[in-house]
Each structure stands twice: as C-alpha cells, then as structure tokens.
Specification:
Number of domains: 2
Bound molecules: glutamine
Keywords: Acetylation, Hydrolase
Order of helices and strands: HEEEEHHHHHHHHEHEEHHEEEEH
Organism: [Clostridium] aminophilum
Structural class: alpha+beta
EC number: 3.5.1.2
Shape: globular
Number of strands: 11
Strand content: 5-15%
Helix content: 40-55%
CATH architecture of the largest domain: 3-Layer(aba) Sandwich
InterPro entries: Beta-lactam/transpept-like, Glutaminase
Distance between the termini: 21 Å
CATH topology of the largest domain: Beta-lactamase
CATH class of the largest domain: Alpha Beta
GO molecular function: glutaminase activity
Length: about 325
C-alpha cells in the first residue's frame, strides 16, 4: 500500500459513500430485538499492525456480532477438536443458498456445506470441546479483540432463543441425521450455545482488531502474542473468502477481494493483505443479509487503498462501482 495515502481521509470518504446507499437496505427484524437498532448508523475502523487506529462514524456503537461469531467458534472448534474431526462433520464448499437454508441438508448432502452458514455453525458449535464452551468462546473473543469488557446482550439472546424456530428446525434435522458431534445431552444445549455466541456484543473497532490479528497470521502485533496458530488462521481466512458473505460471497470477492465475515447485526470484519484489519457497522442489510452501507465502505477502502488480495497493491478504479 502507498504509505503516503491519507487513510483517515479515505475512511471518512468511504463512510460518506456508504451513507448514500443506506436507503437500499432494511434493519433485520426476524429476531425482534434486532429491529431496535438505529437504522442510520454507519461507522468503520481500520487498524494498522503498528497499532495506529483510524476511525470514523459510529465505530464505537456496540452491536451483536451474530454470524461473525461463526469465525470465532470455528477457531475454538479447530483448537479443541482438531481439523479432521471438525471437517468430518462439515464441508468446505460455498453454497448458493441463503445463510439459514435447510434445503441442502435434504437435497444435496446431510453434512452442512460450510461452517459460515447456520447449519454449519450449529455443527461446529457441537464440536467444541470445553467444560464451559461459552466461557471459552468469550475469553477467545476478548483476547482476539483486545477488549476485556466484551459481553453478551441478554435481550438479544432471549429474543433469538424465543424466535429461533428455523435454527431449531435445522438443529433437529442435524440431530436426526447424526451429524452433531460431542457428548451433548440435549440438542437445545447446542442451540443455546449458538444463540449465546451470536449475541456477544462488539464494536467496529473490536472487529478491526480481530481482523488485524487474522491478517498477521494469528499474532497480535501490538503485544507480540501468538493467539491462534497460522494453520488455523489460514483455514478460517480461506473459508471467510469463499463463504463469509453467504450467497453473495462470489460477487463480494470480485468487488472487494478480502476475506470477510458479516452478521445480521450489521457488522463486517475484513482482513487486508498488508496486515491491516477493518471493522464496519451499519445495521441496514441488503437482501442477502449483509450490511449494505458496510459493504460499500469496505469496497471503497479496497479500491482507494489498493487492498484487493488479487491486485498489485495499488489503488484501482473499480469497474464494479
Ligand atoms: N443469529 C443469527 C441466526 O442464526 C445469525 C445469522 C446471521 O448473522 N446471518 O439467524
């Protein structure tokens, strides 16, 4: 990346650009508590490996990470159960179906296609080996985001636990087909863990720090600590690139070219090839369930800072705008 670029100015311009498309999206309401988010919010944060933080807009508003939790739970499952065990239960293939689809479990394969869709993440949750899996999850999130005050939003958790009939249906199909792993007594306990993990609150700044650690092969460059092994980080980043934006992952890869993960709370984290981490938040979502303003912000950053992982590192004028 060109070091003379004014990253703060580019980020502010990206947020202004993102605001222009907010009218195209809607706040998620299928989990009733999520509908209370302020629809006009939009913010972003970018952290360089030397610790320099660039932030603009609503970068410090907490929101529930929702599907972004799927990357953390995958890390925890790989750390505690191992690669072979986890991928004997879930695939590594992108799917063209919605994130909460049941279709493929019946029509294509009993195993969920990948860990980034709901069915896959429920299986991955069942693979986690720990006495108190949620406690281990929270510890990992706090460490990777460098924020010890991260906690769960009880209201969102209860709201999803009460309304999450589709996820419940998925989990019961998976149980019926013997795909779930571990010594769980009750499938409801796996769902409870999944709902809790989705309800952990972060800010765009927390996500930027997390993405920066992933961008540095699992080392937090601000402390030097290796938090996740490079092997696990490589697996997680590859799946983020291929499947992290659900059935929009291909188009997003063409336009943005960064391993990323979104959630219906409106967050997206994106891993830049030069060791930078990006986090954005905007609760208005497009039809695929991805933050409409957030995607625009990251797309703008990718082209103006030259971050597309398959480009030459120079700013480019996107033909996709
Ligand atoms: N908790 C949400 C669900 O299971 C997460 C989905 C998402 O962020 N796409 O429906």
């Amino acid at each position: 990346m060109d070091e003379t670029l004014d990253i703060q100015a580019v980020l502010e311009a990206a947020i202004a650009e993102g605001r222009q498309v907010l009218y195209e999206g809607n706040v998620a309401d299928y989990i009733p508590e999520l509908a209370k988010a302020a629809p006009g919010s939009l913010g972003g944060c970018l952290i360089k490996p030397d610790g320099t933080v660039y932030a603009a807009g609503d970068y410090d508003i907490p929101f529930t990470m929702q599907s972004i939790s799927k990357t953390f739970s995958l890390i925890l499952a790989l750390q505690t159960a191992g690669f072979n065990r986890v991928f004997s239960k879930v695939g590594m293939e992108p799917t063209g179906d919605r994130f909460d689809s049941i279709l493929q479990l019946e029509l294509k394969d009993w195993h969920p296609f990948n860990p980034m869709i709901n069915a896959g993440a429920i299986v991955v949750s069942s693979c986690i080996r720990a006495k108190d899996p949620f406690d281990e999850f929270l510890k990992l999130v706090r460490k990777l985001c460098a924020n010890d005050s991260i906690s769960m939003n009880e209201r969102v958790y209860y709201s999803e636990k009460q309304s999450g009939t589709r996820n419940r249906a998925i989990a019961y199909i998976l149980m019926n087909d013997h795909i779930l792993d571990g010594e769980w007594e009750d499938v409801e306990d796996i769902l409870d863990l999944y709902f809790r993990m989705c309800s952990v609150m972060v800010t765009a700044k927390d996500l930027a720090h997390y993405a920066m650690v992933l961008a540095n092969d699992g080392i937090d460059p601000t402390t030097g600590e290796q938090i996740v092994t490079p092997d696990i980080v490589r697996v997680v980043k590859t799946l983020m690139l291929l499947c992290g934006m659900y059935d929009e992952s291909g188009e997003y890869a063409v336009k943005v070219g960064l391993p990323s993960k979104s959630g219906v709370g409106g967050g997206i984290c994106a891993v830049a090839p030069n060791g930078m981490g990006i986090g954005v938040f905007g609760p208005k979502l497009n039809k695929k369930g991805n933050s409409v303003g957030g995607e625009k912000v990251i797309q703008y950053l990718s082209s103006h800072l030259g971050l597309h992982m398959l480009s030459d590192g120079k700013p480019y004028k996107s033909i996709a705008f």
